[in-house]
C-alpha cells in the first residue's frame, strides 16, 4: 500500500500543472528554488563565523539559542500563509478499500517531506558540520540537530492544527511584536529568557525527548482531529464565503466604463490572488528605504529611476502584466457579449492610473532623502502614466495563459509566460537606460525633463495608443480564447 | 435567419465539423442532437465566433459573424459555466449583463420577477457568489442571463443537463414560450431526446461533425431518433427532410 502512495505522489508531482509549463519557466523556477536553497546552505555554513564576529565573547551556540524563539515564531508566521494540508487530494481515496487511519497517516506523513521542513534541514546541517569541524562534541551536536528538525516538524503540525485561524495568527504576530518590544525597551530580555531553554537542547542531549515528545503529541492530535473531520461536510468541504453585494453606484460618473470598472473592483477585492497582490503592492512603498538609506546608492541614478518606476508602478506591473488573463475564466462570455472592447481596456487603464497616482503620493515622504529623489519619483510616475500603461496593455494582448483567481499568489506562476519577462524590458529597462544616458551626457535636469516629456506625450496620444491596443486585442481574440480554455496551461 | 455556408472545423487534420449548407429561418426553434464529440458545441462556438472556422462561414441575420460584431446586440447564449463570473452574486451578474445589453436595473428586475418559479428561491437573495452555487443553480442563472435584453437569437448548449426534474419541466415551458414569440430563434442542444423533441420544431442530428438527419418534429420523431441512436435502421418520416426550408 505504501508503495502505491509513493507512486501516486510521484505522478502527482510530474503530472502537475506547474510541471507541464514551458521549459523556460521550469528552468527559471528550478533556478529560483536552487538559489534559495543555496543561500540558506551558505547562511548555515557561515553562521558560525558570523556569530563569532557578532559576539566574540560568547559561544556561537549560545548566541544562536537566544534567537531561536524568533526563528520559531517567524517560521510559524510564514507557514501560516504559505502552507496548508492538501486534504482535497485524498478525496478519491475515501471510497476505496483503504482504512481511514491509513489515509490520515498518508497525508500527515506526506507533509513531512514538504519544502518548508527542507529549509530547516538545509540551514542547520551545514551549521552542524561546521560545529563538528570546530571540535564540538559529536553527540551533543547531532542530538541538537535532531531537536531542530523535531521543532521544524512541530511547527509543521502545529500549523495544520491552526489551519488558517485568524486568532492564532494574531497571537503569533502579537508575540513577535511583544517580544521585540520588551527586548527593545529593555523591560525583559526575551533572548536571555529563552536562550538557556534552547541552549539546553544542546547542552543536555537527553532534553531532545521534549521536542520529540511534543512532536508525537502534535502528530497524535492532528491524527485524531483529521480522522474525525474526514468527511465531505467536514475537512473536505470547500469554504463558501458569504457574499456581500455592493452596487458601487459612485462609479456611475464614468459612464460607459462603469460596468467594467465595477467588475474590475469586484475582481480585485473578491479574489485571493488579486487581493493579496494589492497588499503586496502597498508594502513595496517601503522598498525605497532599503536603497535610500545606504551611502553606496546615493549617487547611482539608475537605481533611483528603478525605484521610481518600480514603486509608483508596482500595481501597474503586478496587475497590468496579466491583463486580460484575470478575466480568462469567463473571457468566452465577454467576447460573445455586446461589449465595447475599448471601454473594457479603458477601465483597466483607469484603475492602473489611480494606483500610480496613489503610490506616487505614498512615495512623497522620500523627499526627506533629497529633492532629487522626489524629482525622479515624480518623473517616473508621469512616465508610468503616459508610456508604461499603454505598453503593459499592449503586451497584455500576448497573454494566453489561464489564471485561476482563487489561488494564492505566493509562488504561483499561473498565467506566466515569456511575455511577463519580456515586458520588463520596455517598462523598466527603457526609462533607466534613457535616464542614465541623458544624465551622463547632458544633465540631471535634461534627464528628468525627458521622462516627463515622454510621459506627457504618451498621455496626449492616449486615445490613439488605446485604439491601437484595442485593435490588437480584437486581432488576437481567438488565440486568447483558445489559450484561456486550457486549464493546465 | 442563420445561414451556414461550407463550414468546417479541423483540429490537426481531424475534421470535427463539416456542414455544407444549413439554414435556420427566423423564429424557428431548432434542436441539435448527437453523441459526445458530434460537434454540437463546436457549431455553437463557431456561431458565436469564439473559435475561427477552418473553411466557410456563418451568417447571422445577414451578418457574417467573423467579420462584423453587429450580431452581438441581438444574440445571447449560455454555453457552460465559463459564461458566468464566479466572484459576482447572481444579482450582480444579471445587472452586469443587463448593462452590457442596455437594460437598467428596473428592467432586469422586471425580467427576473418572471422567473421566480424557475429560480425556486435558490438563486436570488442567497448572499452567495456564483462560484459557490451548485452546478444546477449556476446553470439556471446562466440560462436566465441569456434572456436579458430581448435578444432575437438565443443559443443554449445542453440547458437540461444538471437540472432537477421540476426545473427541467419549467425550462421546457420557458423555451416554448420564447420560441412562440414573434421572430425569436432558439437554438438548443441536448442529449435528452425527449426534451428536445418536445420543445423544438426542427431537429438536426450531428454525427462526427456531419448532418445525418434533419427533420421537422412530428409524433414519430422521438421513436425515429431513439431507433437511430440505438443503432437501428433509419425509418423515413412521412415528412420530407428539409435541409433548405
List the helices and strands and how they pair.
The complex is a heterodimer of chains A (489) and B (245).
Chain A: H1 2-14, H2 23-54, H3 60-82, H4 91-94, H5 100-111, H6 115-133, H7 138-162, H8 166-184, H9 190-203, H10 209-228, H11 258-270, H12 272-283, H13 287-292, H14 301-312, H15 314-320, H16 331-336, H17 341-363, H18 371-396, H19 418-422, H20 424-441, H21 444-460, H22 462-475, H23 477-485
Helix pairs in contact in A: 2-3, 2-6, 3-7, 3-8, 3-9, 5-10, 6-7, 7-10, 11-12, 11-17, 12-15, 14-15, 14-18, 14-20, 15-17, 17-18, 17-22, 18-21, 18-22, 20-21
Chain B: E1 2-11, E2 14-24, E3 29-33, H1 40-47, E4 55-60, E5 63-64, E6 75-78, H2 90-100, H3 105-113, H4 116-119, H5 135-145, E7 153-157, H6 165-180, E8 185-190, H7 193-199, E9 202-207, E10 210-216, H8 221-229
Parallel strand pairs in B: 3-8, 3-9, 6-7, 7-8
Antiparallel strand pairs in B: 1-2, 1-4, 4-5, 9-10
Short description:
Chain A is mostly helical and 489 residues long. Chain A has 23 helices and no strands. Chain A has helices at residues 2-14, 23-54, 60-82, 91-94, 100-111, 115-133, 138-162, 166-184, 190-203, 209-228, 258-270, 272-283, 287-292, 301-312, 314-320, 331-336, 341-363, 371-396, 418-422, 424-441, 444-460, 462-475, 477-485.
Write up what this structure looks like.
The complex is a heterodimer of chains A (489) and B (245). Chain A is mostly helical. Chain A is 71% helix and 0% strand. Chain A has helices at 2-14, 23-54, 60-82, 91-94, 100-111, 115-133, 138-162, 166-184, 190-203, 209-228, 258-270, 272-283, 287-292, 301-312, 314-320, 331-336, 341-363, 371-396, 418-422, 424-441, 444-460, 462-475, 477-485. In chain A, helix 2 packs antiparallel against helix 3 and helix 17 runs antiparallel to helix 18. The longest helix of chain A has 32 residues, at 23-54. Chain A is globular, with a radius of gyration of 27 Å. Chain B has eight helices and ten strands. Chain B is α/β, with parallel strands linked by helices and 245 residues long. Chain B is globular, with a radius of gyration of 18 Å. Chain B has helices at 40-47, 90-100, 105-113, 116-119, 135-145, 165-180, 193-199, 221-229; strands at residues 2-11, 14-24, 29-33, 55-60, 63-64, 75-78, 153-157, 185-190, 202-207, 210-216. Chain B has a six-stranded mixed β-sheet with strand order 6-7-8-3-9-10, sandwiched between helices. The model of chain B is unreliable at 234-245 (pLDDT under 50). The A-B interface holds A 238, 240-245, 247, 258-259, 262-263, 266-267, 270-271, 329-333, 335-339, 405-406, 477-478, 481-482, 485 and B 48-52, 69, 72-73, 75, 77, 79, 82-89, 91-92, 95-97, 99-101, 126-129, 131-132.
Amino acid at each position: 500500500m505504501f508503495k502505491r502512495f509513493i507512486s501516486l505522489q510521484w505522478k502527482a508531482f510530474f503530472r502537475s500543472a506547474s510541471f507541464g509549463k514551458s521549459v523556460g519557466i521550469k528552468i527559471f523556477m528550478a533556478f529560483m528554488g536552487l538559489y534559495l536553497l543555496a543561500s540558506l546552505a551558505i547562511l548555515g555554513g557561515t553562521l558560525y563565523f558570523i556569530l563569532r564576529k557578532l559576539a566574540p565573547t560568547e559561544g556561537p551556540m549560545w548566541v544562536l539559542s537566544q534567537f531561536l524563539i524568533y526563528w520559531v515564531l517567524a517560521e510559524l508566521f510564514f507557514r501560516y500563509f504559505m502552507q496548508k494540508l492538501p486534504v482535497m487530494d485524498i478525496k478519491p481515496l475515501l471510497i476505496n478499500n483503504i482504512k481511514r487511519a491509513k489515509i490520515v497517516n498518508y497525508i500527515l506523513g506526506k507533509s513531512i517531506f514538504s519544502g518548508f521542513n527542507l529549509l530547516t534541514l538545509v540551514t542547520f546541517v551545514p551549521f552542524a558540520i561546521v560545529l563538528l569541524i570546530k571540535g564540538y562534541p559529536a553527540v551533543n551536536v547531532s542530538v541538537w540537530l535532531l531537536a531542530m528538525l523535531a521543532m521544524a516538524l512541530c511547527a509543521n503540525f502545529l500549523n495544520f492544527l491552526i489551519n488558517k485561524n485568524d486568532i492564532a495568527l494574531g497571537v503569533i504576530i502579537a508575540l513577535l511584536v511583544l517580544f521585540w518590544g520588551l527586548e527593545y525597551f529593555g523591560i525583559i530580555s526575551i533572548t536571555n529568557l529563552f536562550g538557556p531553554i534552547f541552549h539546553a537542547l544542546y547542552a543536555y542531549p537527553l532534553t531532545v525527548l521534549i521536542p520529540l515528545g511534543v512532536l508525537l503529541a502534535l502528530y497524535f492530535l492532528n491524527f485524531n482531529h483529521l480522522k474525525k473531520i474526514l468527511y465531505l461536510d467536514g475537512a473536505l468541504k470547500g469554504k463558501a464565503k458569504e457574499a456581500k453585494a455592493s452596487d458601487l453606484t459612485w462609479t456611475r460618473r464614468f459612464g460607459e466604463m462603469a460596468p467594467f470598472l465595477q467588475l474590475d473592483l469586484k475582481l480585485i477585492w473578491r479574489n485571493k490572488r488579486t487581493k493579496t497582490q494589492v497588499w503586496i503592492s502597498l508594502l513595496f512603498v517601503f522598498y525605497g528605504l532599503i536603497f535610500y538609506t545606504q551611502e553606496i546608492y546615493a549617487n547611482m541614478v539608475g537605481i533611483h529611476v528603478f525605484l521610481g518606476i518600480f514603486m509608483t508602478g508596482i500595481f501597474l506591473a503586478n496587475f497590468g502584466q496579466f491583463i486580460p488573463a484575470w478575466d480568462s475564466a469567463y473571457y468566452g462570455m465577454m467576447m460573445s457579449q455586446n461589449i465595447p472592447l475599448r471601454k473594457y481596456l479603458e477601465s483597466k487603464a483607469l484603475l492602473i492610473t489611480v494606483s500610480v497616482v496613489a503610490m506616487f503620493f505614498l512615495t512623497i515622504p522620500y523627499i526627506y532623502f533629497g529633492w532629487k529623489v522626489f524629482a525622479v519619483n515624480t518623473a517616473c510616475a508621469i512616465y508610468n502614466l503616459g508610456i508604461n500603461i499603454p505598453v503593459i496593455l499592449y503586451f497584455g494582448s500576448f497573454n494566453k495563459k489561464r489564471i485561476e483567481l482563487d489561488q494564492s499568489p505566493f509562488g504561483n506562476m499561473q498565467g506566466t509566460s515569456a511575455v511577463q519577462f519580456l515586458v520588463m524590458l520596455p517598462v523598466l529597462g527603457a526609462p533607466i537606460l534613457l535616464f542614465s544616458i541623458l544624465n551622463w551626457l547632458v544633465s540631471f535636469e535634461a534627464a528628468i525633463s525627458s521622462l516627463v516629456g515622454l510621459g506627457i506625450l504618451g498621455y496626449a496620444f492616449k486615445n490613439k495608443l488605446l485604439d491601437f491596443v484595442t485593435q490588437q486585442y480584437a486581432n488576437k481574440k481567438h488565440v486568447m480564447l483558445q489559450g484561456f480554455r486550457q486549464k493546465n496551461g | 435567419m442563420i445561414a451556414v455556408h461550407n463550414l468546417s472545423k479541423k483540429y490537426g487534420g481531424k475534421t470535427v465539423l463539416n456542414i455544407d449548407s444549413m439554414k435556420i429561418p427566423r423564429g424557428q426553434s431548432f434542436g441539435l442532437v448527437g453523441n459526445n464529440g458530434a460537434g454540437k458545441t463546436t457549431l455553437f462556438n463557431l456561431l458565436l465566433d469564439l473559435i475561427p472556422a477552418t473553411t466557410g462561414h456563418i451568417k447571422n441575420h445577414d451578418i457574417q459573424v467573423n467579420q462584423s460584431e453587429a450580431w452581438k446586440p441581438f444574440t445571447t447564449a449560455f454555453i457552460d459555466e465559463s459564461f458566468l463570473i464566479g466572484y459576482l452574486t447572481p444579482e450582480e451578474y444579471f445587472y452586469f449583463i443587463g448593462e452590457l445589453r442596455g437594460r437598467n436595473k428596473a428592467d432586469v428586475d422586471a425580467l427576473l420577477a418572471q422567473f421566480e418559479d424557475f429560480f425556486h428561491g435558490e438563486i436570488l437573495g442567497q448572499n452567495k457568489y456564483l462560484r459557490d452555487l451548485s452546478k444546477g443553480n449556476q446553470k439556471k442563472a446562466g440560462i436566465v442571463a441569456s434572456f436579458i435584453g430581448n435578444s432575437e437569437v438565443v443559443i443554449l448548449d445542453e440547458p437540461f443537463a444538471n437540472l432537477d426534474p421540476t426545473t427541467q419541466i419549467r425550462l421546457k415551458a420557458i423555451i416554448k414560450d420564447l420560441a412562440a414569440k414573434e421572430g425569436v430563434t432558439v437554438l438548443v442542444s441536448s442529449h435528452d431526446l425527449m426534451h428536445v423533441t418536445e420543445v423544438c420544431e426542427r431537429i438536426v442530428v450531428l454525427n462526427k461533425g456531419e448532418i445525418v438527419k434533419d427533420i421537422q418534429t412530428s409524433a414519430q420523431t422521438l421513436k425515429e431518433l431513439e431507433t437511430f441512436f440505438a443503432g437501428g435502421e433509419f425509418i423515413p418520416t412521412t415528412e420530407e427532410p428539409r435541409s433548405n426550408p
